TrEMBL record:
Listed Pfam families: DUF4216
Name of the featured protein: DUF4216 domain-containing protein
Region (Disordered), start-end ranges: 214-281
Biological classification of the source: Eukaryota, Viridiplantae, Streptophyta, Embryophyta, Tracheophyta
Comp. bias (Acidic residues): 249-265
Ranges of biased composition (kind: Low complexity): 266-279
Domain of life: Eukaryota
All copies of domain DUF4216, residue ranges: 99-170
Signal sequence range: none
Amino acid sequence: MDAATVDRSHQREFPAWFRTRIQELRVTNPSDITDDIYALACGPDPWVSSFSACISNGTRFDTESRGKHRRTQNSGVVVKGEHQSKAVDFYGVLIDILQLKYMGWRHLFLFRCEWFDVGDARRGIHVGDHITSVNTSRKWYKDEPFVLACQAAQVFYLQDNSKHGNWSVVQRVTSRNTYDVPIIPSEHGDEDDDQNLNYAAFQENEPSYAVLEPEEDDNGISSPLHRTDVSPIDVPGDTVLGDAIPTPGDDDFIDDELDENDDYESSSSEDLVTDTGTSSDDDFFFFKLRYLSRK
């Protein structure tokens, strides 16, 4: 039995075997089976949700159909995998985004993609020193279009003018506001990775900024604060401050100090009489406010 037959048999029979095995262990040794493993073994709901865009690992992905009428391109994907026991970068385009739901409100997202034929080094992909080109007209792995959303990285495809046909240059990018910070290895073996938080943050050995020395004249004074080419002018202090400080006689002056002779408790309806001798509606309204404020 060759390797391809074993893989097909494994894909066809493993889900049923895994579900039966986990259900048996759930009965005999319930403490050994977590809720996540049990929900995974039982399989997803038969109903799935489809989306045309999503954000995964801080990167926005759009399906190919959504990006056809847009100036931006967010449908290119690359996934690291294996082909015949060799590491391969699978390049493709995003066709659909599916959400699978499991028991206990668990869910995950799958990308359905079309993969380009990167297995053919002559007609499918050309790898140079600095440029990688793929033939977008040749497809590969049509029976395995799904990958986890967290496994996919984003790439852009630019037309390769140096070749005839449907060849595109692969442009890898780094998402904005994301940084590849190196991980400091732990000195305590295989202990919890959370202990790495106790170590000092990563810092370069050499600074990446330049220090500018100030320029000095013959007298040793750097950046003098007075001019020697003009005569000084004396400005009286009251000329500047006198115009800046408002006085009580000004129309724009607002006095927030309360007069001790003001008696708000003696306000009555008789004080709110207009020139005609009758109380207006506005005056009555303010009187009510004063009356209520005393309560």
